[in-house]
Design goal:
single chain; 327 residues; TIM Barrel; 7-stranded parallel β-sheet; two-stranded antiparallel sheet; 11 helices; Aldo-Keto_reductase
């Protein structure tokens, strides 16, 4: 098990539920539920979703898992995004009334009476973070939420939030090719005793070496990201080749190496780290779990560390949508 902040204990690896929505193409609900059950069967009991995923349908899907296995799952969900990022619409809301409303709606969709970890998905630029976290703290006092989290906040925003209520985890993109959080956010989290939950730890599948730029569907959300644009994706294949080289040397897959790198970075930087790769394939879940047996030596870590500086394209089309654009 891994300890994040505020004494929140989770499985060493989590599962990102967004993959089980149509953002990467059509998904079969029955197969998606079977994938969730397989994750829990395999020992991944930290399940992450959000009210915006599938317009609430992802929470309903997770709710079907919880109906039989609530006591086995550490449940995380999020609120705060009011637009549809999959369609390029980015807006957020964090006023007290909305916080309380969203929590009740999520609890109903999930079919449970308590959320283990409740995140602010994106900061509302028109509402002080103190007001948002204060309302989230009311949910803790009411017994509807146990732990609080924040997604894509800066170090300063994290400090302001912690002054209101303990924060268990920051969830932001962090991987071999996305390392901007290491400048300020990760050190602040380590100092404050806050854990870190990297989303897209496999670069939305890119770092696995299985992404063909010509195979992305028209409705694939990755087409909205600069790194997956024409030209950039092909240029970034060089990064994958470096990962493949390390993977071959240690007898692992590129995905396993990418997750092992994150695990070792957490140890190096002094904070609990629980990546939440998402997938639709049950065999990928087993592959990801096996990353716990992969150990990288200092030279291999240094080789992987060099990749981020070579990447073409920003990690978000809207710089202020992620923490790096507000630092």
């Amino acid at each position: 098990m891994t300890i994040l902040g505020d004494n929140l204990t989770t499985s060493p690896l989590g599962f990102g539920g967004m993959a089980l929505t149509p953002v990467y193409g059509a998904v079969d609900p029955t197969d998606a539920l079977a994938t969730l059950h397989h994750a829990v069967d395999a020992g991944i009991t930290f399940i992450d979703t959000a009210n915006v995923y599938g317009g609430g349908s992802n929470e309903e899907l997770v709710g079907k898992l919880l109906a039989d296995r609530r006591d086995e799952v550490t449940l995380a969900t999020k609120f705060g995004i009011t637009g549809n990022p999959a369609a390029g619409q980015r807006s957020s809301r964090g006023d007290r009334e909305y916080v309380l409303q969203c929590a009740d709606e999520s609890l109903a969709r999930l079919g449970t009476d308590v959320i283990d970890l409740y995140y602010l998905h994106r900061l509302d630029p028109n509402t002080p973070i103190e007001e948002t976290v204060g309302a989230m703290a009311e949910l803790v006092a009411a017994g509807k939420v146990i732990h609080l989290g924040l997604s894509e906040v800066t170090a300063d925003e994290l400090r302001r939030a912690v002054a209101v209520h303990p924060i268990a985890a920051v969830q932001s993109e962090w991987s071999i090719w996305s390392r901007d959080v290491e400048r300020n956010v990760v050190p602040a989290a380590a100092e404050l005793g806050v854990g870190f939950v990297p989303y897209s730890p496999l670069g939305r599948g890119f770092l696995t070496g299985t992404i063909d730029s010509n195979a992305l569907g028209d409705n694939d959300i990755r087409r909205h990201f600069p790194r997956f644009a024409d030209g950039s994706l092909d240029a970034n294949q060089a990064a994958v080749e470096v990962i493949k080289g390390v993977a071959e040397a240690v007898g692992a897959t590129p995905a396993q190496v990418s997750l092992a790198w994150l695990r070792q970075k957490g140890t190096e930087l002094g904070l609990g780290v629980v990546p939440i790769p998402g997938t639709r394939k049950r065999e990928r879940i087993d592959e990801n779990i096996a990353s716990s047996a992969v150990t990288l030596d200092d030279a291999q870590v240094a080789t992987l560390d060099s990749i981020a500086a070579t990447v073409t394209g920003a990690r978000s089309a809207d710089a202020k949508w992620v923490s790096a654009g507000r630092e």
